[in-house]
Amino acid sequence: DGGITQSPKYLFRKEGQNVTLSCEQNLNHDAMYWYRQDPGQGLRLIYYSQIVNDFQKGDIAEGYSVSREKKESFPLTVTSAQKNPTAFYLCASRAGGPGELFFGEGSRLTVL
Amino acid sequence: GEDVEQSLFLSVREGDSSVINCTYTDSSSTYLYWYKQEPGAGLQLLTYIFSNMDMKQDQRLTVLLNKKDKHLSLRIADTQTGDSAIYFCAADGNYQLIWGAGTKLIIKP
């Protein structure tokens, strides 16, 4: 079935460690997005990519990095520079332009 | 900048109608969306309305759009326990969706 797969679903990290969250889609979508969700704050955009080999910073990109080497994949690295990384991370994609955004099931990162 | 606002909580009795409200600032948004998020999961598109429509109905769901006031509402008829979730309003921006903070719908027995 077509969709977006995020992994891992739960991740624990010690302070000072980098961690990479995986996002893979088989919907043939051009655009992919990473959001961070904190309670009561809705979704905040970290990075987005509208085409392979290109990506743009969103509203809260500091302490995060991404790559878009393949159309299907848009991994997010949470670096040690991110001061408060404990959150629920959501990956999404869409075909391009206005239209439905498809979401993965999310990855919950906890920093110990 | 562009903004979408919605109240954080709504409590209704099972069987009653739920009305979740949203206001937005970008009058050029082509589509306006309602997404549903169940605990610990991603978001799923519930319904959407094109900006030149006033109303859209889909089974128990009714979306009303007042472009003049930039007000969007989602009515859920005969609210059930399975409707308990967070409901997000979103509007099309330049390159992304602009999201409200989400309204948590609480169902009382």
Summary tags:
heterodimer, A: 112 residues, mainly beta, 7-stranded mixed sheet, 4-stranded antiparallel sheet, 0% helix, globular, B: 109 residues, 6-stranded mixed sheet, 5-stranded antiparallel sheet
Describe the fold and architecture:
- The complex is a heterodimer of chains A (112) and B (109).
- Chain A contains no helices and 11 strands.
- Chain A has strands at 4-7, 10-13, 19-25, 31-37, 43-51, 54-57, 64-66, 76-78, 87-94, 102-103, 107-111.
- In chain A, the strands form 2 sheets. In chain A, strands 2, 4, 5, 6, 9, 10 and 11 form a 7-stranded mixed beta sheet that branches.
- Chain A is globular.
- The model of chain A has no long low-confidence stretch (mean pLDDT 93).
- Chain B contains no helices and 11 strands.
- In chain B, strands 2, 4, 5, 9, 10 and 11 form a 6-stranded mixed beta sheet that branches. Chain B has a 5-stranded antiparallel beta sheet with strand order 1-3-8-7-6, with no helix packed on it.
- The model of chain B has no long low-confidence stretch (mean pLDDT 92).
